[in-house]
Design brief:
Elements (H helix, E strand, L loop, with lengths): L11 H11 L3 E10 L6 H20 L3 E3 L2 E11 L4 H14 L4 E5 L2 H14 L3 E3 L14 E3 L4 H15 L5 E7 L2 H16 L3 E8 L7 H10 L3 E3 L5 H14 L4 E4 L5 H8 L7 E2 L12 H14 L9 H16 L4 H8 L4 E3 L2 E3 L1 E2 L1 H4 L4 E2 L3 E7 L2 E8 L2 H8 L1
Parallel strand pairs: 1-3, 1-4, 5-6, 7-8, 7-9, 9-10, 10-11
Antiparallel strand pairs: 2-3, 11-16, 12-13, 14-15, 16-17
Helix pairs in contact: 2-10, 2-11, 3-4, 5-6, 7-8, 8-9, 11-12
């Protein structure tokens, strides 16, 4: 497995500090990951697990995290939630009642997170999540923090950009996975397209785990919309539908609000993926990427065979936020860490960051990072535009 040599840039003073800390007593904090490690969305879960391991390696290589006079090392423990509420609940029970997980550094899926929150909030355990549902946020969930952009950050700038590129768009079809994530995203997507003057000809559902997409593609081709929005569908599912649509001769605008992995998409769709717009991807090897992102991205390609994206890199950022909050609180008590997490400032993979979103969720629990729009060009994710939320701009300029 690829490992990033975080020791390389350390100077003599830092090395001296490391040697001093090495002689001191160290304790371990277990950080849990609950994500789909099998099935169609496994590319997200495996990437999140890998990025979390790199973040832990970096923290540990830099001497761990210090609180109340003790030094702690991070240890990543991963669980397969299979993108289901049942497995999400089982993961939570195993993590907190059997395995002694101290913090949950990454989760994927609204349904699994809803199931986990019943236990994490009651026990006062901090939970970082990529879940797109608004129902998992708010003052009633003070221990839950979102580690990536969600529809309420992405859709308006994303759809506006696409409409600017294609001003003649008049009609659309929305295809959503029939689960908590898709159900919460669907009305937001429909309303946002409507506000841009795009008529929704149909909004259809499919079950996660579906392998036969020809009927869906046939209906889309029959309606012949200007645009198809694939909502929260994972890359492999979208790839299957695009491949069928290509055979049927449909060649409209392709939109993936939760679009992440171009490699996984093109592996299934081939050239049919060309031109697709992605709302949760990024070119972490390009000019706008930070040095941290470039190094992580290169490592992910070597270890996983594909680059990182907005979902997978989020566990790295969550762990950097957690380290900063533990140090600010000078404690590993989750209640004390939670009390400072909303206001802590830290260096994410994107650069300076913190949490905001109180105007949207009535609680500042949304990670502040850029909204990035990419498109598939010659089989690669090419960044077209990025924009910082106003809160992030204010933080950077503070």
């Amino acid at each position: 497995m690829y490992t990033t040599n975080w020791l390389r840039p350390l100077g003599a003073a830092a090395l001296t500090l490391l040697l001093a800390q090495a002689g001191a007593a160290q304790e371990t904090l277990k950080l849990g990951i609950s994500a789909p490690l099998s099935g169609a969305a496994a590319t997200w879960g495996l990437g999140m697990e890998w990025a979390a391991e790199q973040a832990a390696e970096r923290v540990n290589a830099e001497g761990g995290v210090t609180a109340n006079g003790k030094t702690y090392m991070f240890d990543i423990v991963s669980y397969d939630n299979k993108y289901s509420a049942t497995e999400g609940a089982r993961n939570a029970q195993t993590m907190l009642n059997r395995d002694g997980i101290d913090f949950i550094a990454g989760t994927i899926g609204t349904a699994p997170v809803r199931a986990m929150q019943a236990l994490t909030e009651r026990k006062g355990v901090i939970l970082f999540t990529t879940a797109w549902g608004k129902s998992v946020k708010g003052p009633e969930f003070p221990f839950t923090f979102t580690q990536m952009n969600t529809p309420f950050e992405i859709l308006v700038p994303f759809y506006n950009f696409i409409k600017e590129q294609h001003p003649d768009l008049k009609t659309a079809v929305l295809i959503s996975p029939n689960d908590a994530t898709g159900q919460e995203l669907e009305p937001v997507a429909v309303e946002t397209w409507k506000s841009l003057g795009v008529e929704m000809l149909a909004s259809d559902w499919y079950e996660r785990g579906t392998t036969e997409f020809q009927p869906i593609a046939t209906k889309i081709a029959t309606l012949n919309p200007d645009l198809v929005d694939f909502s929260a569908a994972p890359p492999t599912d979208v790839g299957s539908i695009l491949k069928e649509l290509d055979v049927l001769g449909w060649n409209g605008v392709k939109v993936m609000s939760a679009g992440t992995s171009v490699d996984a998409l093109t592996a299934v769709a081939g050239e049919a993926a060309e031109g697709a717009y992605l709302g949760a991807s990024a070119d972490f090897s390009g000019e706008t990427a930070t040095e941290v992102q470039k190094e992580l991205n290169a490592g992910a390609r070597e270890a996983l065979g594909e680059p990182l994206n907005g979902i997978t890199i989020s566990s790295y950022d969550a762990i950097m936020a957690l380290r900063a909050a533990i140090e600010e609180a000078d404690s590993v008590d989750p209640a004390k860490v939670q009390a400072v997490l909303s206001s802590v400032r830290f260096e994410s993979s994107y650069g300076p960051s913190g949490f905001g979103g109180e105007a949207t969720y009535d609680y500042p629990q949304q990670l502040l990072i850029p909204v990035i729009v990419t498109r598939v060009e010659n089989g690669k994710a090419v960044e077209l535009t990025r924009s910082n939320p106003a809160e992030l701009e204010a933080l950077i300029n503070d």
